[in-house]
């Protein structure tokens, strides 16, 4: 049996390595966040008016009006915080998740950082990004051991669809040069996004009052070492709307895959904090004022 001092030394070395990997992971995140803000969030989008949305399908115009984004000036960046839970299989264990996300509204881009508690003391550190038309998903055990490191055309498409779905948190991005809308019926509109040489589309469904209800799209799903194009669905939990900084958005959603063997709801999330008018000097300790409906 090894002497106690050797075991102690080994423990100290492992702790040092894990700490180093943890700090390195989050320094990379910070650098990418700064790059996103500098390169994609410096220009302000145009102020939306009733005249500037006249060409959109009626239900999309109603959504933007009801959201409260007309006649307001926004910086190109958005920052939000999430709490929720996710699982990796239909019968899998739900794991708590805490996440932060930054968006560019002037060109499509985002950076999502998450901490997933598997069970004490194990956790997963996740990063999902979409910058310059390229997606990248990185998941590491204890912020040190890469489990997923995915890039390529299929990830680019999946990230583009994700961005399109998440503009419901900053609806003014719906009127962008890279997004085109077409009416499907009185309550449904198809949004087509084109950027970085890739085009994808999704169906947005709304209530009669103009609230966003769900989005459905074909998105790449990775399982067993391969990716297939599957039906992907994001639903708003009924009645889950909240006003942040004067903007009315859905704050509780569920994300599902509609697979051959059934519906796989894998992520339940709540937006706990959101800030518009982002800039490089933004402090993560800022706490915007909220209002409940």
Automatic annotation (TrEMBL):
Q: Which InterPro entries does this entry report, sorted A to Z? A: DUF6544 (IPR046674)
- One Pfam family assigned to this protein is DUF6544
Transmembrane portions of the chain: 6-25
Which terms are listed as keywords in the entry? Membrane, Transmembrane, Transmembrane helix
Q: What name does the UniProt record give this protein? A: Uncharacterized protein
């Amino acid at each position: 049996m090894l002497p106690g001092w050797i075991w102690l030394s080994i423990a100290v070395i492992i702790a040092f390595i894990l700490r180093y990997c943890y700090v390195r992971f989050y320094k990379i995140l910070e650098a990418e966040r700064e790059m996103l803000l500098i390169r994609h969030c410096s220009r302000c989008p145009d102020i939306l008016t009733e005249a500037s949305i006249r060409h959109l399908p009626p239900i999309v115009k109603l959504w933007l009006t009801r959201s409260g984004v007309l006649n307001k000036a926004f910086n190109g960046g958005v920052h939000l915080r999430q709490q929720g839970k996710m699982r990796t299989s239909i019968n899998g264990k739900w794991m708590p998740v805490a996440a932060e996300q930054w968006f560019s509204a002037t060109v499509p881009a985002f950076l999502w950082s998450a901490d997933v508690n598997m069970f004490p003391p194990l956790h997963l550190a996740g990063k999902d990004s979409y910058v310059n038309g390229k997606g990248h998903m990185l998941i590491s055990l204890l912020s040190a051991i890469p489990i997923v490191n995915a890039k390529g055309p299929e990830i680019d498409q999946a990230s583009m669809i994700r961005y399109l779905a998440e503009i419901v948190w900053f609806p003014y991005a719906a009127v962008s040069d890279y997004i085109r809308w077409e009416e499907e019926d009185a309550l449904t509109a198809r949004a087509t996004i084109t950027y970085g040489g890739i085009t994808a589309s999704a169906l947005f469904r709304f209530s009669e009052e103009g609230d966003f209800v769900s989005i459905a799209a074909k998105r790449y799903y990775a399982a067993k070492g391969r990716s297939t194009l599957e039906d992907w669905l994001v639903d708003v939990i009924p009645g889950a709307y909240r006003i942040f900084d004067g903007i009315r958005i859905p704050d509780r959603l569920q994300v599902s895959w509609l697979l051959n063997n059934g519906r796989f709801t894998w992520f339940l999330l709540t937006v706990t904090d959101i800030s518009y008018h982002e800039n490089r000097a933004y402090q993560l300790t800022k706490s915007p004022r909220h209002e409940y409906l």
